[in-house]
Structures are given as structure tokens and as C-alpha cells.
Automatic annotation (TrEMBL):
GO biological process annotation, one example: bacterial-type flagellum-dependent swarming motility
Cellular compartment(s): Bacterial flagellum basal body
The family this protein is said to belong to: Belongs to the flagella basal body rod proteins family.
A cellular-component GO term for this protein: bacterial-type flagellum basal body
Identification of the protein by name: Uncharacterized protein
Assigned keywords, A-Z: Bacterial flagellum
Amino acid sequence: MLRGFYTAASGMIAQQRKTDLLTNNMANSNTPGFKSDQSAIRAFPEMLLQRLDKKSIPVENSISYSRFQNIGALNTGVYLQEAIPKFLQGDMQETGLKTDLAIIDLNGNKSSAFFTVQDQKGETKYTRNGNFTIDPNGYLTTANGLYVLDNQQNKIRLNSDQFEVSSNGTITGDGTRAQLGIVYSNNPEKLMKEGDGLYRTENNRELPNAANNQYRLQQGFLERSNVDISQTMTDMLSTYRSFEANQKVLQAYDKSMERAVNEIGRVNG
């Protein structure tokens, strides 16, 4: 009976965490370059239940021995193992702003190229969000103030907002010349999410610079989020129904336990 409590409760916890994941996807449906998360729900190992009893051999000075009889397998519940970003190319949205840049991957639908930025701690991070701006000191930064880096890991300083960015990431105009630091990952699913659209590698290893045939930049455009709103809404409803089903199982177990405590073994006067 108690095992049933744990199994139903684990199902509720897994579905609650999946709901949080889907809610975050929905909240970022308008965030440029955002990659939706997909959940991986796994089952705990099954247990094989056995009954131990004794059997006697009808001989003089009878002999008894223990034996195991299989009852069956019992699933011990599920858990949300991990959230994996879905690196599919988002749609392009034209903005007309020179500081807006979008990466178009040339290796199919999988997003593998990233902008290189520097966070407040001076560490290198990666992002698909090309919604950039120019700070008061003339540096190219992200919308939340992180410095955009070139291919030599240096900050990019512009002399004015009149500049052009070629398809390979070369910045020119008004005496400025720089090369955007575009890096490439063969396995983007292994990148760690940092929040605010940032990613890092395991052990903070730097990604290699991307080759020209792996990406193309589009100035005046932003890559939209790849969240499928209608599918996300459907998944949220399905997750809620699964949570509700586990909740009803838990309530049924609770009523059975209440009856066992209050009625079984009652001595009638």
C-alpha cells in the first residue's frame, strides 16, 4: 500500500516539473533566439516481488525448506531526468535595426552556431539572441549589458552606429573593422543553459570558431523563438491530465488507508 503512495507521488512531482518547463517555454515564446526545452521522463527500476514460504516433505522426521515464489514486477515510479534544449532554427523576423543580427545555420535545421559574449564575471558564454545595442562607451553589447566578443575574444568597439555586417560576420564602417566571434558546436545538446538565453560548455571549454560554410549572418533581422505555441498548449493540457490522474490514485490510496485504520480490526461489542 505504501509503495503505491510513493509511485503516485513521484508521478505528480514529475508532471509538476514538466509543467514548469512548458510554462517557461511559453513565457519565452517571444524571446529572440530562445530554444524550447523538451523533457526526458524516465521510470525508476522495477522491483520483482517474491513470496517466501516453507514447504514440508512428507517423510519420517519431515524436512521443511524455504522457497521463493514470484508474484510479479512492481514499477516504483517516474522522474524528470533532464530538460534538453531543442536546437532547431527559428523563423527570421525583420527589424531594420543595424544592431540586430541573426545567425542562419547552413547545416540543416539544427542550430549549431552561436554568438560569443562576456558575462559580468569575465567568463565566455554563448547565445543565439542577436538583439544587440551600443553602450555609452561605444561597445557592442547584448540587451542586458554583456559585451559581444570578436573572434579573438576581445570586446567590439564601434565608432558610430553606421556600420555594416557581412554574411561572414565582418563589421565595417566609419573606420571600424572587426570580425564577430561566431563559434560552432557539433553537439549543442550538451551545452549547459545559464538563463537569459546564455549557454556554456561543460568545464567551460571554449568552442572553436565557426567556418564560413557553417553559418550566415543577416543584419537587420532577429531569429525568433522556436517554441511551437499550439503544441506547447496541448502538452500542458496533457501534463495537467496526467497530474490529475496521479492525484486521484493518491486520493484512492488515502481513503483505503483511512478505512484500514478506522474499520479493520474493530472489535464489535
